């Protein structure tokens, strides 16, 4: 059961990432984040009410609030990076977010084992190889790598904070609801400021009603992925669940190849693969 739910998590996260990046090519990233997360917030609110998650409220929710502030920054940067592409490089590099929880553990006195140390070395090598060809190109390509690494840092921070925000499954739903509530508030405020400064909240044709199902899918797939991961972690070794769930970049890369016909240079493919391998080693360690 652990493997089944963990693989479902990787599938849902990978498709959500692909959908978010694709939508950002037509709709401003802030709008994608706000709308998709609003839909997710409504659904999570219903789940919290249905499961009695309010009983889990306590001081730990402040970790969820902090995660809610970091989340929009990470998502906006990630969707922008995916929109600039190629997704087959951006998505695996973003999995370096696992380095943040590892760093927190080091700060608290933990020491990495041989597998974790190897994972760090492999992941860094992957970043250099995947980003190197871009660094000699146009500025926009450099920005893509920078945006991806900022997103990875933000996602890793969110993962570390959410881990401290709950100790039960119902508490996790409440923490995720609080996080997304702050996501919507922070993202909405950023969108308002952007519009006041002359930015665009909508594409030239107005609100993309035709894209509403896709926006809903992105938000709901993210929620469902968190739920399936929680089930996987509850029914088996967390290490197994984490390793299998971290395969979601493969789904994004395959979707980009299948739907967008993306092709990678050999050095980029090698770097992306090493970054993903390093992430798996870190998770397994």
Automatic annotation (TrEMBL):
InterPro entries per UniProt: EamA_dom (IPR000620), EmrE-like (IPR037185)
Originating species: Streptomyces cellulosae
This protein's record includes keyword Transmembrane helix: yes
Pfam families: EamA
Transmembrane segments: 6-23, 30-55, 61-82, 89-108, 114-132, 144-163, 169-195, 207-232, 238-259, 266-284
Keyword Membrane part of the UniProt annotation: yes
Protein name stated in the entry: EamA family transporter
Domain EamA: start-end pairs: 3-130, 145-282
Family: Belongs to the EamA transporter family.
Keyword terms of this UniProt record: Membrane, Transmembrane, Transmembrane helix
């Amino acid at each position: 059961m652990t493997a089944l739910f963990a693989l479902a998590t990787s599938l849902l996260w990978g498709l959500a990432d692909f959908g978010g990046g694709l939508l950002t090519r037509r709709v401003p990233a802030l709008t994608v984040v706000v709308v998709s997360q609003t839909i997710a917030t409504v659904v999570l609110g219903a789940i919290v009410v249905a499961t009695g998650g309010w009983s889990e409220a306590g001081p730990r929710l402040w970790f969820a609030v902090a995660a809610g502030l970091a989340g929009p920054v990470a998502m906006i940067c990630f969707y922008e990076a995916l929109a600039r592409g190629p997704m087959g490089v951006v998505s695996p590099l973003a999995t370096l977010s696992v380095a943040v929880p590892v760093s927190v553990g080091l700060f608290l006195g933990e020491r990495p084992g041989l597998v974790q140390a190897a994972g760090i070395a492999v992941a860094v090598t992957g970043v250099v190889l995947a980003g190197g060809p871009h660094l000699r190109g146009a500025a926009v390509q450099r920005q893509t790598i920078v945006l991806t690494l900022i997103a990875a840092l933000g996602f890793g921070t969110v993962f570390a904070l959410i881990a401290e925000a709950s100790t039960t499954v119902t508490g996790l739903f409440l923490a995720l609801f609080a996080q997304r509530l702050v996501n919507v508030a922070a993202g909405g405020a950023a969108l308002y400021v952007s519009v006041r400064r002359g930015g665009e909240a909508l594409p030239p044709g107005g609100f993309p009603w035709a894209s509403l199902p896709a926006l809903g899918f992105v938000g709901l797939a993210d929620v469902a992925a968190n739920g399936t991961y929680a089930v996987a972690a509850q029914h088996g070794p967390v290490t197994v669940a984490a390793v299998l769930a971290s395969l979601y970049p493969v789904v994004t890369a395959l979707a980009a190849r299948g739907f967008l016909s993306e092709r990678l240079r050999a050095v980029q493919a090698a770097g992306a693969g090493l970054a993903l391998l390093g992430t798996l080693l870190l998770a397994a360690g």
